Amino acid sequence: MYFKFITLLALALLTGCTTIPYEKPQDRLNIQKDLSLKPEEIVTMTQVNWCAYAYGEVTPCHPQEALGVQTRTKLILASYDKPHYKTMVEVQASDVVCAHLQTPVDTAPNLFLFAQNYAVQIWPVEPNFKPPEFNT
Q1: Which fold has domain 2-124?
Q2: Region 62-73: what's the mean pLDDT?
Q3: Count of other CB atoms within 10 angstroms of residue 47
Q4: Model pTM score
């Protein structure tokens, strides 16, 4: 189960953009400091758009930008307010009961993570890609 989660998440997080800085050594140090992570804990990171859904809620999805930081045990979605990174959502691998990678033909792949009480949809940011607005 955890291996599937890690594999799907790694596939979703492989592409990136430079709007939220994370590729330079100083950026990585700032991310580690602000998110209280050790260098060896970080598996991969990239800029993403995401939405969270509480089951039974009919709130439309309004994608938010974030830095997706995958560790061995969790996914952190962090905001960036120059010069600091702040955790917005933290999804523990142990909370994920199902994951689904959707790969449409004409858009970037997106990942759904389903937990007991909520779901998170994540799109890796690619140049010129904007996720659609959804009414759920």
Answers
A1: PH-domain like (2.30.29)
A2: 94
A3: 22
A4: 0.76
Domain ranges, ordered by start, for the chain: 2-124
Instruction: Report residue 10 as tokens.
Output: 């790694």
pLDDT tens by residue, 68-101: 999 999 999 999 999 999 999 999 999 999 999 8
Instruction: Assign 3-class secondary structure to the chain.
Output: CHHHHHHHHHHHCCCCCCCCCCCCHHHHHHHHHHCCCCHHHEEEEEEEEEEEEECCCCCCECCEEEEEEEECCEEEEEEEECCEEEEEEEEEHHHEEEEEEECCCCCCCEEEEEECCEEEEEEECCCCCCCCCECC
**C-alpha distances in angstroms, 35 versus 77, 95, 101, 134?**
10, 20, 26, 30
